[in-house]
Amino acid sequence: MKSVELFSGAGGLALGISQAGFHHEVVIELDHDACNTIRANQARQLEHVRDWKLEETDVKAFDFGRLESSIDLLAAGVPCQPWSIGGKHRGYEDDRNLFPDTIRAVVSLRPKAILIENVKGLTRQSFANYFSYIQFMLEFPKVTRKPHEAWLDHRTRLEKYVTARGKGYRGLRYNVVPKLLNAANYGVPQRRERVFIAAFREDLGIEWSFPKETHSQEMLWVDQWGTGEYWERHQVPLKQRPKRPTGIENRIAEASLFPMLPWITVRDRIHDLPDPRRPGAREIPNHVFQSGARSYVGHTGSPLDEPAKTLKAGDHGVPGGENMIAFPNGDVRYFTVREAARMQTFPEEFIFESSWSENMRQLGNAVPVELGRIIASDIRQKLTSQHRSNGKLGQCELSPRLIRSTSGISA
Questions:
Q1: Same domain, 173 and 225
Q2: Does the residue 273 lie in any domain?
Q3: CATH code, 302
Q4: How far apart are CA 138 and CA 200, in angstroms?
Q5: What gap in Å lies between CA 130 and CA 285, rounded to an integer?
Q6: Among 327, 196, 308, which Cα is nearest to 263's?
Q7: Under 8 Å CB-to-CB from 381, ≥6 apart: which residues?
Q8: Any bridge partners for residue 332, and if so which?
Q9: CB atoms within 10 A of CB 4
């Protein structure tokens, strides 16, 4: 199946989608350093990356009409800085708000499915109208914004089609499903809450929901404080274990009623790596000690025996105080790039070749590879099932240019 990736960064979401069985017709990213990371891994012939058709360009300037193939999935990790709690909170007034350009790609490519990722901040009350506006634009992408039209006025026009359930609208339409996901609940060793918006073209008749969660905090507590198997597995003596959380007994008891897998912790993911301060640790790619870590209010690092806190890129540089490991004895140190890549579930063979701060910026901006793979695999399975049940693709196989010339448009 064929896909297009917008705003790829260093390639976290793109890599997960490739692992799910999609072939990227093009991967678009403007940032030069992020493109260099992808190129470095292509030069090393890394699986799922080597064949990407990488375009280092602004999505605003890209001509989607040159893509002749029918696209199954359009994916976009739309820049999050306008909506991030750690950013300037300028939202739709920020020049980096590229949701309108994502809609332009939708109109041009008519993909069967869409997957968009952004920060939890997009769901804040102050951005509620714009968040619904994004969903309205996805549902009725042919109702385009007029020159000099304010986005609120455009939203009002879209609302009429939403409330009328599309009556009077002819043309491209999508069924849209937004959801806030915590990556830790899907086996990623990081508490990373992000909003995902998935959409399927309405003419396909697909019913879909996000994959069910597979991991839970309660089952981690069972593993640690119920059976104690966690500590035995990692050979942690009693005196080196953290203090047992208070008030968890009832939740441990209830966990058995909803069997899942335990959250994956920092210790789970880095236990086989040597301390980066030890001789020989540098032989492991990207496993280099970074000095200067310190804990202070609001920047206390990630406890070793929990999933990592959200890795951050920062709007004014990398917030190193959060990109640290906090050990049970009170010590802290920065994650190495290799450790941070493991928190983001990049393959061990995936290499970052810039400075520590630049590499951490790219990792902080990335979508966890495994979470991308899980969602994209479910989308691919649904598209495959729909194709088999229909026995043909019909309009889906038409050239995007031919489809554009024959589709009715109502605005």
A1: no
A2: yes
A3: 3.90.120
A4: 10
A5: 42
A6: 308
A7: none
A8: 326
A9: 26
CB 408 within 8 A of CB 170: yes
The C-alpha atoms of residue 136 and residue 40 are separated, in whole angstroms, by 39
Reference 266, options 227, 301, 297; nearest CA is 301
The parent domain of residue 149 ranges over 2-213+367-406
Strand partners, 198: 115, 177
Residue 400 and residue 71 in contact, taking contact as beta carbons nearer than 8 Å: yes
Interatomic CA distance for residues 199 and 175, integer angstroms:
5
| Number of helices followed by number of strands (H, E) in the chain | 13, 12
What does the alpha-carbon distance between residue 408 and residue 114 come to, in Å, rounded to a whole number? 21
147: left (phi over 0), alpha (psi -120 to 50) or beta: beta
User: What is the per-residue pLDDT for 387?
Assistant: 74
Same domain flag for 156 and 296 = no
Measured distance CA(400)–CA(3) in Å, rounded: 13
In a domain, 361, yes or no: no
pTM for this model (two decimals):
0.90
Rounded Cα gap, residues 179 and 186, in angstroms: 14
Tens of pLDDT, residues 365-390: 999 999 999 999 999 999 998 777 77
159-199 residue pLDDT tens: 999 999 889 898 899 999 999 999 999 999 999 999 999 99
- Is the pLDDT at 90 greater than 80? The verdict is no
For the CA atoms of 188, 193, 199, 200, what is the dihedral angle to 10 degrees?
20
Question: Does 374 lie in the same domain as 227?
Answer: no
On whether residue 152 sits in a domain, the answer given is: yes
Residue 234 lies in a domain: yes
Q: How far apart are CA 88 and CA 315, in angstroms?
A: 8
Residue showing tokens 């009429």: 160
Token representation of residue 281:
């640790």
